[in-house]
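Quick one, tokens below. Sequence please?
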């Protein structure tokens, strides 16, 4: 965790899952951790391990089975279970795997929606709001697309526009669920540079679910790894790699993790 600042995000004995009547299904087991501002946290794990469930829980989309999620503000004011939707919108933004289908809305209109927490009840944009929209489009390189209809964009362009909307919202925390899921290699590389720039230049904290272990090892400040039993391991990427956690969670058959090279190898085809 960078610096010695107060935690921006705290998870205390947090267990996630789903409830149906009196029946509950645990997905990730109880764990405790904290994160300060200006960090990238990559959340990785095998398919079906509960990455999205954990992300939705810490972003306030679903309730925890047990434990507490705190945003900066202390035990009482920071507990997201006590926050309204409006308060949450000031604290965190969301960029989900699949972008919305907003009909014939333009890119600038989509990004302007990120200013909703800051506008009056009429939703009218002030000069400050318009400047925030303009700046967020420029940061992601989407300014030339501002008058385009959103639905006509490529997957990579759509993803950058949704990141622009999150930046326009101007929150200290941004949650990403598989942001590179539908992108080709050049678009994934551009996304990597964009996300690290948002951390380094904007001081934002990004929590990202991803299947891309190479990205997580290269760019994250912290990693949360969920194994197939729902146990969550958190720590520095190098420590989790050297400690054998990555290899134990992801190796299968002839596919093994080389700790020294920090990469996966096929023993049958070196």
């Amino acid at each position: 965790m960078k610096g010695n600042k107060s935690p921006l995000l705290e998870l205390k004995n947090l267990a996630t899952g789903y409830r149906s009547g009196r029946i509950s299904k645990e997905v990730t087991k109880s764990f405790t951790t904290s994160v300060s501002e200006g960090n990238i946290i990559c959340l990785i794990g095998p398919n079906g391990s509960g990455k999205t469930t954990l992300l939705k829980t810490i972003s306030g989309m679903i309730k925890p089975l047990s434990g507490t999620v705190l945003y900066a503000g202390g035990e009482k004011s920071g507990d997201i279970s006590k926050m309204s939707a409006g308060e949450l919108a000031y604290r965190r933004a969301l960029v989900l795997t699949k972008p919305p289908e907003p009909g014939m809305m333009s890119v600038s209109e989509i990004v302007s929606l990120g200013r909703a927490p800051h506008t009056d009840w009429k939703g009218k944009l002030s000069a400050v709001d318009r400047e925030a929209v303009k700046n967020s489009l420029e940061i992601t390189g989407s300014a030339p697309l501002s008058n385009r209809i959103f639905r006509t964009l490529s997957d990579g362009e759509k993803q950058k526009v949704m990141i622009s909307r999150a930046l326009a919202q101007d929150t200290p925390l941004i949650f990403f669920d598989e942001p590179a899921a539908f992108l080709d290699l050049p678009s994934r590389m551009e996304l990597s540079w964009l996300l690290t720039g948002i951390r380094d230049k904007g001081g934002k904290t990004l929590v990202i679910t991803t299947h891309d272990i190479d990205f997580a090892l290269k760019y994250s400040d912290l990693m949360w790894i969920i194994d197939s039993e729902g146990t969550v391991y958190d720590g520095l990427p190098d420590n989790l790699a050297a400690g054998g956690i990555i290899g134990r969670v992801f190796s299968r058959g002839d596919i093994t993790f080389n700790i020294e090279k920090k990469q996966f190898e096929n023993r049958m085809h070196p």
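DSSP finds ten helices and eleven strands in the chain. The mean pLDDT is 88.
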